[in-house]
Design a protein that fits this description.
There is one protein chain. This protein is α/β, with parallel strands linked by helices. It is about 45% helix and about 15% strand. Helix 13 links the parallel strand 10 and strand 11. Helix 2 (about 35-60) packs antiparallel against helix 3, helix 3 (about 65-75) packs antiparallel against helix 4 (about 75-90) and helix 14 (about 405-410) crosses helix 18. The protein is globular, with a radius of gyration of 23 Å. The two termini are about 35 Å apart.
């Protein structure tokens, strides 16, 4: 069966490649032709490019991204404006934005728990992080919760072994949302439980990103799951055309069980994430298990995207709320604040979380990320923290999964190192965890990379931890991983002339990577 799927995937990739090349070739012909129609077309496209440049300059936004697009349009004025329109429209149509806003408004009140008399899940004080908590709650709509046990799981094997017994305990529903799913040891073990639970009458739903799974699943895989009694949705099904919806992906990792237990983090459901086979050396990942009140937040996050074009029945949503939460345990100390990030609103939620953690650091801030492609705001925050005496450390991969992106990541090293930031590369392989921890009092674990795609374009999720016991586990794991890393020296970043030119070009186009 797997060989048959692989042949289908090869045929699908070949078909899509041919279609896209044909479209690109047709566009090139129209532009390069000497016919009267082509002359008119070129004039029209040039006018569009001029208008686009004026629009880019006048609008608010990241200066780096604006510079990239102005340069690209000046470089290829005939098609530059058209490319920008296609790319910017990929941030979402007004129709989809309105649907998601309506869904968010309907669900927002019940994030605070149906039986919370105060209308809030938690309303206490977390010291210097209170502004961040209030921003996430008041502006973004994601409240903080007490009465939640948080458990840090690193590496991916720990996540996998912790997940299976929790799936077995499911009594009412299992909601699963991941960027990548691929057949193998990990997914097959999970699927066996999901299929069995569905036969027992549980509400089992799976959602995956169609582009994320473009190379790992056949196009009709959702029908395979539905035949097993599992409800399934492909997020933004990929269309092999030069369209305006391909860039906006569901990069979230959510698995919630009965509204009592939830998992999130960096790992997808494929074998490289648990080192069942070696893809880019040893794969270092991390996840978080929540038990208690905060798990309810992930149930609602899942429902925000599930069938978002359909009207939501609130009574059916409230029926998912667990009324038999486990009693408070010693590990339930601290405050937990799950959050989601969407390219469909005006808030850069993941970006703001990173920024506030860095700005609030007084002793140290440790960050792990597979990609380090940041805007001037985050660059300034990191360098200012280091210059102010904060111990700032960042771990990135040594073995890349995407060499051009890795070279772009390395282009940020010199400025950071000169400011006092310590950059480490994970020499055994690929660092895929998205983790930050600071001052023994706050940490963040989730799906948000420190790159433009995660921070500006993708649907993401994560969890902030305030004064939780597992923060010490996150710090200890980080320091242990550092022992396997190489400290990058400034002299290693210089390279030759062509090396530096290549990095500068990649850095210029970083917002598009």
């Amino acid at each position: 069966m797997k060989q048959k799927w692989k042949r289908a995937l090869v045929r699908r990739r070949l078909f899509v490649t041919i279609l896209i090349l044909l479209q690109a070739g047709f566009l090139f012909y129209l532009i390069s032709s000497t016919s009267a129609t082509s002359e008119v077309l070129r004039g029209l496209l040039t006018v569009i490019s001029i208008g686009t440049v004026l629009h880019i300059i006048s609008k608010q936004g990241d200066p780096n991204a604006k510079l990239t697009w102005v340069f690209l349009i000046l470089l290829v004025p005939i098609v530059g404006g058209l490319l920008y329109l296609l790319y910017s429209l990929q941030r979402g149509t007004n129709f989809m934005r309105k649907l998601l806003a309506r869904r968010r408004d309907v669900l927002r009140p019940i994030f605070y728990l149906p039986n919370a008399e105060s209308g809030m899940a938690f309303s206490g004080n977390v010291g210097k992080y209170s502004p961040l908590l209030k921003y996430m709650h008041g502006t973004c709509g994601y409240p903080a919760y007490d009465h939640t046990q948080s458990e840090y799981l690193s590496p991916g094997q720990a996540f996998f072994s912790r997940l299976l017994p929790e799936l077995e305990k499911a009594e009412k529903y299992i909601f699963l949302e991941f960027f990548i799913i691929e057949e193998g040891t990990m997914w097959n073990s999970i699927l066996e439980i999901l299929e069995r639970k569905a036969k027992e009458g549980l509400d089992v739903r799976v959602m995956y990103d169609d582009v994320g799974c473009f190379l790992t699943l056949p196009s009709n895989y959702h029908k395979t799951l539905e035949a097993k009694g599992i409800q399934c949705r492909k997020f933004h099904p990929f269309q092999p055309f030069l369209s305006s919806v391909q860039n906006q992906r569901d990069h979230r990792k959510i698995l919630v069980i009965d509204g009592k237990v939830a998992f999130t983090g960096g790992a997808n459901l494929a074998d490289e994430y648990i080192n069942a086979y070696e893809k880019h050396g040893y794969w270092q990942d991390a996840a978080l298990c929540l038990q208690g009140k905060a798990a309810w937040s992930f149930t609602l996050m899942f429902l925000q995207l599930w069938d978002y074009w359909e009207e939501l029945d609130l009574s059916s949503v409230l029926s998912l709320y667990p009324t038999d939460l486990p009693p408070l345990s010693q590990d339930s100390q601290g405050i937990v604040q799950p959050y989601a990030d969407s390219p469909m609103d005006q808030e850069l939620t993941g970006h703001s979380a990173y920024l506030r953690i860095i700005q609030s650091a007084q002793d140290y801030v440790y960050i792990a990320t597979p990609y380090l492609i940041i805007d001037d705001i985050l660059m300034r925050a990191l360098t200012l923290a280091a210059k102010s005496g904060v111990d700032v450390r960042i771990i990135t991969p040594y073995i890349p999964d995407k060499p051009p992106v890795h070279q772009t990541t390395r282009s940020y090293y010199p400025e950071l190192i000169e400011a006092g930031v310590r950059i480490y590369e994970f020499t055994p392989g690929f660092m895929h965890a998205k983790v930050s921890v600071s001052d023994d009092s706050i940490a963040s674990v989730g799906s948000v990379n420190m790159d433009y795609r995660s921070l500006y374009l993708h649907f993401e999720c994560g969890c902030l931890l305030y004064d939780c016991p597992c923060i010490q586990d996150i710090k200890a794991d980080y320091l242990n991983i550092l022992q396997k890393c190489h400290l990058v020296r400034l002299e290693e970043c210089k390279g030759g002339f062509f090396y530096r030119i290549t990095q500068q070009v990649l850095r210029l186009f970083a917002p598009l990577l």
